[in-house]
Amino acid sequence: MQSLKKTPRLCLSPFRLGRYINRSVFLATQILPSVDNQHRKDFGPTVSPERLLLGPGPSNADPAVLKALSQPPIGHLDPFYVDLMSEVQELLRYAWQTSNRLTLPMSGTGSAAMEATLANVVEPEDTVLVAIKGYFGHRLADMAGRYKANVETIHKEWGNAFSLQEIEDALKKHTPAVLAIVHAETSTGVCQPMDGIGDLCRKYNCLLLVDTVTSLGGVPLYLDEWKIDLAYSCSQKGLSCPPGLGPFSMNERAENKMSNRKDKVPNWYLDVSLLNKYWGSDRVYHHTAPVNMNFGIREALRLLAEEGLEVSWGRHRTNAKSLWNSLENIGLELHVKEELRLPTLTTVKIPEGLDGKAFTKHLLNNFGVEIGGGLGDLAGKVWRIGLMGYNSTSENVDKIINIFETELPKFR
Amino acid sequence: MQSLKKTPRLCLSPFRLGRYINRSVFLATQILPSVDNQHRKDFGPTVSPERLLLGPGPSNADPAVLKALSQPPIGHLDPFYVDLMSEVQELLRYAWQTSNRLTLPMSGTGSAAMEATLANVVEPEDTVLVAIKGYFGHRLADMAGRYKANVETIHKEWGNAFSLQEIEDALKKHTPAVLAIVHAETSTGVCQPMDGIGDLCRKYNCLLLVDTVTSLGGVPLYLDEWKIDLAYSCSQKGLSCPPGLGPFSMNERAENKMSNRKDKVPNWYLDVSLLNKYWGSDRVYHHTAPVNMNFGIREALRLLAEEGLEVSWGRHRTNAKSLWNSLENIGLELHVKEELRLPTLTTVKIPEGLDGKAFTKHLLNNFGVEIGGGLGDLAGKVWRIGLMGYNSTSENVDKIINIFETELPKFR
Predict the structure, then answer these.
(1) Which of A136, A236, A339, B214 could be cross-linked to B186 through a Cys-Cys bond (beta carbons 3.0 to 4.6 Å apart)?
(2) Where does the record place the Aminotransferase class V domain (chains A, B) (predicted)?
């Protein structure tokens, strides 16, 4: 079907009507403007290519999750759906190791959940201290500024983590209302050691807000034990679900700050005081939930609980170690020192003089394998290889290493 | 699997490991806190019940859409996905009858797209005039207030529409920067006549913002012809896709207002100036797109283009008229006068003395059929019957009428 001129008024469309012909009618009772067909394109059915997603995410979804996702939708206040919501919350609590009542998936991607953590607790003039050691720290700072926070930052080179001393010094200096830090920096492949940060935040009377986008499900993570007050994540990495939901959790300390706000939360869609009435026992309609995505994440979280966190964490670590060894064995250098490396995402230095972008393109086009390039400070300097959730297998390690071994020499 | 006490340190989970056993390992190199299993529940696989969704939405999705939705995800910067984004935009332009460049699905539900229309153009102290004739007008007013607008409202009883004179009087009185009005009020079943409102907004130099949540795909709608500057909708009604995406469109007049803002858009996730760099030719990463939902909406919009707008609108009108006649034939009264009735959503008065809620519950539990109750001013007074997208068929009209005929007498 090409772009065509306007069709005559009230005229039956001349195009393929197929299955609809029997129920088609003229709008005989209304005088309407002509329909403009310039944007009416004749695209074929929606068929996506096969990909093995070994980049920074999305990762491949578990086939059982895709099956759950494709069930016919039901109402967002259907008793079955309301039960499912509670199950999703409970399984999320397990995955995050928290008993926070306010644990739920936001109806948007991980970035929406990130914004929700700030939007709900930050009031104008609050100091928000962001510990930046990669791309997503900058995003937190940008978002906090939009909520009129007084944003302070501390910085670490991209590929390193903060020491407890550095964090304490900054807390002492800035006395923030919120410290925001990324646990698993997807842009650098660094896992920030969390021991002791929660205690410091209690000592300096601030909330601890943690990005767990690339750790949830794949890397040891204990919200309550680590005294994390606010956390967010995504569905498409360690959970083996497609992107589209943003797990969110807040404890009572954070809830108290939210409850004491002078004004309404300046973001209606992400307002947890409203969402609480839908996810809590009241079940008051807020927005029409993305029910199918929630079918998917329930199944994803269920499979994680079935496997068990220790087993999943161990699987991620074993496969990552095998990847690290193999990459070094073929002469590549890793960007992050071993004790700070994320099991879910590995940054590999692009060898001097090699066109990293051409190589990733070659992998995608010829093998259907996606790996990521660098972001921000690391653009053009590293590749990012993800082994997350369903994709963290020894078979995938072998596959990517074999491809590197045979294909990389062609680019040197 | 019941809630159990904490497992010993570094111990392999004692639960069903099944498919994972071969790749499981101990985290032998790390000393970690114990994993708490109190929230580790042994839920069964995710299986949703069969429902015929004849309420205010979600409506049933086309099976072809569910098939598209369940394909394995691909990267949000994959060349295939980038092409798909452009196709979704083009098909959305057709569905909305607009050539607006900034036409795209927000990565959230319809309420997120609603918020996006306000968040991007409203600056503090701007007057936003909301014409309220139902629940969603109130929501617009609440949201506008959160963006520090000076919110003015005009009201009409729930079940009626505004006249051009009433709108002109209010524009003259309040000289707003934005007039927000709902085209298809899902809470009342009223279709607001749009002729002339766009011209008035140009005359009084304000932007026209229109809620098309329950009209897109099912009811005649011409964004450009009607001089609508900002519009939003949802995926789960006239488009026959599950909920989870919020179609959004803004024209150059609205874009100019956004470009002249003094401050950044106070909502990062919905910031169209950032989203434009991802959806426009730059393809700069903003957030990880909900790729599977976009597979779904592409298929939904493709099917709508294949059917053709005139045919779809005619189908909705014919089936709605048949529903209206049949409901009146069995002695029920409709809430809205015929010339203002929405073909996609019909409000039926609950007969005096009848327990409307018990009846809807009976339909859901015994027939798997969902219809809606009243919201806000109409709570307890009406039922809401939707015939939207894939569900607007004569078979569904017959089915719901038959059920009403046999079951309603049991509740009188």
Answers:
(1) B214
(2) 83-399
